[in-house]
Amino acid sequence: MAATPRLEIRNLTRRFDGRAVVDDVSLQVMPGQVTCLLGPSGCGKSTTLRMIAGVEMQDSGSIWVDGELICDTHFRIPPERRRIGLMFQDFALFPHLSVAENVAFGLTGSAGEKRARVETMLDRVNLRRFIDAWPHELSGGEQQRVALARALAPDPRIMLMDEPFSGLDNRLRDEIRDTTLSVLKDADAAVLLVTHEPDEAMRMADDIALMRHGKIVQQGAPYNIYNAPKDKEAVAFFSDINVIRGTVRGALTETPFGQFLAPGVPEGQEVEIVIRPQHLKIDFDRNGSGPLSTAQDGTPARGVVVRARFMGNESLVEFRMDHDGSIIKATVPNVFLPRPGKPLWLTIRRDRCFVFPAS
Ligand SMILES: Nc1ncnc2c1ncn2[C@@H]1O[C@H](COP(=O)(O)OP(=O)(O)OP(=O)(O)O)[C@@H](O)[C@H]1O
Ligand SMILES: [Mg+2]
Does residue 242's CB lie within 6 angstroms of at least one atom of ligand 1? Predict the structure, then answer.
């Protein structure tokens, strides 16, 4: 028997002014699992979360927790009885309450029980020493950790987090993400985290649901989404891309970089070969002869360096290609800064490119 999801949404749709901003979205999250809703601004992430929280009503579809219906278009358990924890970017601490009072806010029970729970939660986020402090006495990151303790104190079955780290600076954000993740895993809640940052999704998620125009276009483990993206946009969401166009002739596409397989694509159809900058190989000119073709890397094509920049972990080199004047970007680990105007050769790693019918 398959395990029951902690959270399941089925065919959730929400329309504003006749436009479906959440369009037939279905999703499952298991206990102890972090699923990221990842997508560009306006794609319907927050609206989805608000329906699950119960502060927004769907036009159709249903929401289930541990196999029990909590909301459809006829039946609705009110938000405060759903045992769902919330952490939003603008979900500030109450400034007039102490840290302890903030964490105790959603708790029931005797004063002693509440105090014990507050101490446990503050221990988990390593802030016990601030128990009697005021929110304004804490740094942004510390406030965020108190907010996490407060959200988890009532032992929610589900945590909904909407861009909870976006107010923090980079270094602090990584640290808080890691703390948050370990506290959430301990709590065994099902977590649905909304973000528009692919790095955050890769770092936090067991499962990523890629959302676009109100729909989930692809869902899977970060590794699978990154390495088996469904379309060009899915590749582009995670990194810079290069696109090389060609036309299918007998299941193959002929390009300046050699032939590429285009399985299942009809004869005569235009295709786009999509390749990330780190998967191009740069080679020397050798007085115009370039490197030899190989089975794995295909045919080299020549370009001249437009510019090269050092980015810290890698160097980014932009080329103008001889064959059509298009710009191609390639990254190289460490320092590689050829002068503008220098001719070099590029090959495309066939095992790392994606071939899609042209959109
Ligand atoms: N109450 C509302 N009335 C009308 N339109 C709304 C309402 N709430 C949201 N929308 C629209 O629905 C779409 C999705 O909004 P939503 O807040 O879910 O996006 P999002 O994916 O969270 O974006 P962001 O990353 O910018 O937060 C947007 O176009 C927004 O303008
Ligand atoms: Mg939003």
Answer: no
Domain ranges of the chain: 7-236, 239-357
> Nearest CA to 245 among 122, 332, 359, 100?
359
Q: Is 21 in the pocket of ligand 1 (CB under 6 A)?
A: yes
44 ligand 1 Cβ < 6 A: yes
Nearest Cα residue to 242 out of 347, 112, 146, 132:
347
Instruction: Answer yes or no: CATH 3.40.50.300 is held by domain 7-236.
Output: yes
User: Which atom of ligand 1 lies closest to the CA of 17?
Assistant: 4
CA 335, distance to chain mean position in Å, is 29
Backbone φ and ψ of 21, nearest 5°: -85, -25
Q: What is the pLDDT along the chain (359 residues), one digit of tens a residue?
A: 578 999 999 999 999 999 999 999 999 999 999 999 999 999 999 999 999 999 999 999 999 999 999 999 999 999 888 889 998 876 679 999 999 999 999 899 999 999 999 999 999 888 999 999 999 999 888 898 899 899 989 989 999 999 988 877 787 788 888 888 888 888 889 999 999 999 999 999 999 999 999 999 999 999 999 999 999 999 999 999 999 999 999 889 989 999 998 888 899 999 999 999 999 999 999 998 888 888 888 899 999 999 999 999 999 999 999 999 999 999 999 999 999 999 999 999 888 999 999 97
For residue 196, the ligand closest to its alpha carbon is 1
Name the closest-CA residue to atom 13, ligand 1: 42
Q: How many CB atoms lie within 10 A of CB 158?
A: 22
Is any atom of ligand 1 closer than 6 Å to the C-beta of 94?
A: no
Q: Considering only the top CATH level, what class is 239-357? A: mainly beta
